[in-house]
Amino acid sequence: MQPDLILTNGRFTTLDRGNPNPEAVAITQGRFSAVGDARDILATKGAGTQILDLGGRRAIPGLVDSHLHVIRGGLNYNMELRWDGVPTLADAMAMLKRQVAVTPPPQWVRVVGGFTEHQFAEKRLPTLDEINAVAPETPVFILHLYDRALINRAGLRAAGYGKDTPNPPGGEIVRDAASEPTGLLLAKPNATILYSTLAKGPKLPPEIQLNSTRHFMRELNRLGVTGAIDAGGGFQNYPEDYQVIGKLHKDGELTIRIAYNLFTQKPGGEVDDFSRWVGMVKPGQGDDTYRVNGGGEMLVFSAADFEDFRQPRPDMPAKMEGELEQVVRILAQNRWPWRLHATYDETIGRALDVFEKVNKEIPLQGLHWFFDHAETITPRNIDRIAALGGGIAIQNRMAFQGEYFIERYGAEAAEGTPPIKRMLAAGVPVGAGTDATRVSSYNPWVSLAWLVTGKTVGGTRLYPPGNRMDREQALRLWTEANAWFSTEQGKKGRIAVGQLADLAVLSGDYMSVPEDEIAHLSSVLTLLGGKVVHGADDFSTLAPALPAAAPDWSPVRLFGGYQDRKTGQQQKTLAAACGCGHECAVHGHDHASAWASRVPVSDERSFWGALGCGCWAV
What pLDDT sits at residue 565? Predict the structure, then answer.
């Protein structure tokens, strides 16, 4: 058959060891149909074949996140102000101030994860006084990792927190001398207080959740992501909260391939949840775009050891093994793969005791079960996982929390958190991901930079050379390796004949840019099944239409998603050119920021404020 699309003049990293550096790639009916010599491939073109010249750019297989809360994240994306990648607290607070000005009641301004105080030049979070000064009437909720949340006075009123509100189990409402809540919520040690408070805010209506999910997927496509294994999440109920993603799939509007896991929601109700679900759906049910993957990452609440390194390691209760065994038996008997959140080696060891017990009666080999996270796992438990045929999905949470880990356990203990090289040496399947959107950023390049450099986003070196990946190794963990975790080996993850034609053409050459540039890469052309799902720069005219982000006050309209360094550098350059790159003492204008942004002319308040003076026409 004549190909639908031919890509030429690119530097193709195929990850196919038998064909590592081809000259051209052909795509036919959604799959790679030829990978090799340009002259031979161009000779097969037909009247309907589209030919794209990549201009010498690096092309890689589409990235796959092994642990992304993409379904839940999509429902909320358009409501969230992202501080991902913002270099200074001053910039972050300026964004917050601008968003507060356009957010109507009763909506909240939410900064929900993806950042750490260590990324800011100031190396601190905002104070509650600073937040209250910027937002005296609009509720503001700022989630910092899984350790704390900051809420202004308006937010406390909206959430119903007062002098008589008791502390929930595992959390603390910090109070002043008069016992009034200050606005600081602490996870001690688990994040339930943070989750439950966030859930009190208004939700988007279903039609806007559709729009929000499409914008989140497009943002992922912009970064080269074409696939994700969805890890469920707190307050993500099945099947109710999957209707939006199901409709997008039915309408052919998914631009990310999603394999989803089902996450139990109620302590004490885990057996009932999984007993019901194994009768409703089966692993693999669906198609190449949207399919069931298995159970987890929450299997039982008694086995969940949240990774707040500011707090001592939590001991799991004595009932953990009994409750976990009940659920694992249900899953194993029904041949359901599972994933289990486990930060600490102690939790992993106890879970393995259960898995080994079940394995004596119901063999687990071939089931593609795995642990998530495993930051402090020991060689002994790595070998036990290998013996049972399990895997480990690692995430770059240490890139955001490494400084806290060092404060508690020391730099030497941090050198193998997690010990990726030891896992690979043991033959354990290892895949990479982010655990976005509430802990680390969803930006895959932040994870790839962490794998290669061993540094946190704050610049702290965590790992010696022996626990860092070379660039190809890191890329494999983000592509072909993750196919094991969704039981799709050989179907995706390489640019090879017969595989799904998912591909990203990069803004810079990942294989050769300086290490400190890796985190700032993106995609200028992303293909899913050979169809363009994102285009920028020379390929911007190929980008498919996307409705404007809704509602009209959405932070996505003002700021987009991940704030890359190039935008910040552009603002600095413009500021130097016009001489007004600081806030005016009278009106607080910043021409440089306005010139470097997309001015929302349909919104008078933001329009006039961005152009110069926030008090004009307000």
Answer: 62
pLDDT of 190: 83
pLDDT at 234: 86
| Helix (H/G/I), strand (E/B), else coil: 63 | strand
**Listed residue (539, 559, 538, 545) closest to 606, CA to CA:** 559
Q: What is the pLDDT of residues 285-325, one digit of tens each?
A: 999 999 999 999 999 999 999 888 998 999 999 999 999 99
Residue ranges in 294-395 assigned as alpha helix (H): 320-333, 345-359, 379-388
* Percent helix, strand and coil across the chain, each to the nearest 5: 35, 20, 45
Which residues lie closer than 8 Å to 504 by C-beta, 6 or more apart? 59, 60, 61, 62, 63, 224, 226, 523, 525, 526, 527
DSSP characters for 406-459?
A: HHHH-HHHHTTSS-HHHHHHTT--EEEE--BTTSS-S-HHHHHHHHHH-B-TTS
Which residues, listed in sequence order, are joined to residue 302 by a DSSP beta bridge? none
CB atoms within 10 A of CB 567: 16
Structural domain 77-200, CATH architecture? Roll (3.10)
Nearest to 77 by CA among 400, 560, 440: 560
Q: Look at strands 531-535 and 109-112 and give their pairing.
A: unpaired
Write the DSSP string, 197-245: HHTTSPPPPHHHHHHHHHHHHHHHHHTTEEEEEE---TT--TTGGGHHH
Per-position b or e across 276-301, b if 16+ CB within 10 A of its CB: ebbeebebbebeebbbbbbbbbbbbb
Domain spanning 206-528, CATH architecture: Alpha-Beta Barrel (3.20)
Query: First CA to last CA across the chain, in angstroms?
Result: 61
Q: Give yes or no for a contact between 525 and 502, defined as CB atoms under 8 angstroms apart.
A: no
Domains 77-200 and 206-528 share a fold: no
Separation CA 576–CA 573 (nearest Å): 5
- What's the gap between Cα 166 and its chain centre? 33
Q: What is the pLDDT of residue 69?
A: 97
pLDDT value of position 15: 98
Beta bridge partners of 109: 140
Distance, CA of 253 to CA of 246 (rounded, Å): 10
pLDDT at residue 569, rounded to an integer: 41
- Specify whether the CB–CB gap between 414 and 406 falls below 8 A: yes
As separate numbers, helices (DSSP H) first and strands (DSSP E) second, the chain gives 21, 22
How do the domains of the chain map onto residue ranges?
A: 77-200, 206-528
pLDDT score, position 612: 47
Q: For residue range 527-544, what is the model confidence (pLDDT) as tens digits?
A: 999 999 999 999 999 999
Task: Specify the pLDDT at position 582.
Answer: 41
Q: What amino acid occupies position 168?
A: P
Which pLDDT value is given to residue 614?
A: 42
What value does the CA radius of gyration of the chain take, rounded to a whole number of Å? 24
Residues of the chain with pLDDT under 50: 568-606, 608-610, 612-618
Q: Read off the DSSP letter of residue 107.
A: P
What pTM value is reported for the model? Answer: 0.92
DSSP string, 134-169: H-SSS-EEEEETTTEEEE-HHHHHHHT--TTPPPPT
Q: What is the pLDDT of residue 584?
A: 40
In contact, 441 and 84? CB cutoff 8 Å:
yes
Q: Residue 600 CB: number of other CB atoms within 10 A?
A: 18
Interatomic CA distance for residues 555 and 23, integer angstroms: 42
Task: Please give the C-alpha separations between residue 141 and each of 82, 92, 114, 410, 468, in angstroms, as whole numbers.
Answer: 12, 14, 14, 32, 36
- Return the pLDDT at 20: 97
